[in-house]
Amino acid sequence: MYNEREAVVRKQIYLTPAQNEALKRRARELGTSEAEVLRQLIDASLAESENVASKRRIAAMNRFLDWADDLVRRGQGLQAGYRFDREELYAERMERLLRDRGEES
């Protein structure tokens, strides 16, 4: 709910007659202002959008983890004791790039 100490920004919006009547009716039902009804609707909509985005991120991470688990099951995952070595990876990448270009390293 709007807190009188909280800063608000005035907006002008255009509603259809049906939307206007529905807004008035909803505000009466809730015993609040039309502006408060609109703020609550906006907050709910934004929360839902964030919830959908969060679910998509979680689903993407789960797909990645399933893929990684599948690699391990097929014996194509990282071997026990593997240590990440950035320089080694860069060198391998450069060798592959030069090989693909037909150049020698």
Give an overview of the whole structure.
The protein has 105 residues and is mainly alpha-helical. The chain has one domain (17-101). It contains three helices and no strands. The protein has helices at 17-30, 34-73, 86-101. α1 packs across α2. The longest helix has 40 residues, at 34-73. The chain is elongated and about 75 Å long. The N and C termini lie far apart (66 Å).
Which stretches of 5+ consecutive residues score pLDDT under 50? none
Rg, Cα atoms, Å: 28 Å
Q: Count of DSSP E strands?
A: 0
**Helicity level, as a percent range?**
55-70%
Largest sheet: none
User: What is the number of independent domains?
Assistant: 1
Number of helices: 3
Element string (H = helix, E = strand): HHH
Distance between the termini: 66 Å
What spatial form do the alpha-carbon principal axes imply? elongated
The average pLDDT value, as a whole number, equals 87
Strand content: under 5%
The SS-based structural class is: mainly alpha
